[in-house]
Amino acid sequence: MKKAFVIALMASFTVAFAVTPFPGPKGHKVFLKASKSPYLLENSVVIPATDSLIIEAGVEVFMSGYAKLLLRGSVQILGTSQKPVAFRNADSSDSWNGVHLATGSQYFVVRNLIIENAFRNTVTQSSGIFENVHFVNNYYGLWVENAPKVELVGCSFRRNRFALSVGTGSVSFKKTEIRDNVFGLYLEKGATFVGDTAPIHDNLEADVRRESDEMAGKGRKVSHSVWQRIEAGF
Predict the structure, then answer these.
(1) What CA–CA distance (Å, rounded) separates 141 from 177?
(2) d(CA 28, CA 102)
(3) How far apart are the first and last CA of the chain?
(4) Which has the closest alpha carbon to 42: 93, 122, 99, 96?
(5) pLDDT by residue for the chain (234 residues), tens digit each?
(6) 123 HSE (CA, 13 A, CB side)
(7) Cystine design at 44: which of 21, 48, 68, 197 (Cβ 3.0–4.6 Å)?
(8) Do residues 23 and 5 lie in contact, with contact meaning Cβ atoms separated by under 8 Å?
């Protein structure tokens, strides 16, 4: 009995550490296949504008501490409701940097994705759709900055410190729930937000905040660019 238990334990450790290194591009394409999941991203990776990222349904990617995924090329993350894609931290005691979309004129498509335990996830100077994406236990769930059009459909934000922050640009919001965070939705000056705010509720400090309201009659504030430089060094 004891010998059988030891063999089973060793087998479980083998399975736990049988991971595939995050691949480089082949023919200007980075393709993550479900058959080779889970993957491990140990260092920060940049997908240039000339390359594309495609992720199949059911893929899990484990991120080492401070790992960053910067996506400048075409992005298609194609999970399903039965087999979502997941980005998680490799070490339960350590966070990772996050996913940063800066795809320019290339419209990104992210469906059925779980993003957990990241410092900050961003969309900058990009347009695209998040459909059934779940932002869980991040410091910044999603920060949208200078983005012409970002759609959130059927998404959820739970247990983030700052769930959704929108800078200059446009965000549309449909069947998306923001609850059980510290702060819910934050709209900076110049943000355009279209959608029903009823699903934004039960957040600890605030459900919806607007920079224009908070700064009315107040003095000078720390500039947004300064905060970005501080957080980029996290």
Answers:
(1) 13
(2) 17
(3) 49
(4) 96
(5) 434 433 343 344 334 558 999 999 999 999 999 999 999 999 999 999 999 999 999 999 999 988 999 999 999 999 999 999 999 999 877 789 999 999 999 999 999 999 999 999 999 999 999 999 999 999 999 999 999 999 999 999 999 999 999 998 899 999 999 999 999 999 998 899 999 999 999 999 999 999 867 655 555 454 555 445 444 444
(6) 29
(7) 68
(8) no
Contact between residue 168 and residue 193 where contact means Cβ atoms under 8 Å apart: no
Distance, in Å, from the CA atom of 197 to the CA atom of 179, rounded to the nearest integer, reads 11
The pTM for the full model equals 0.84
CA distance 76 to 158: 24
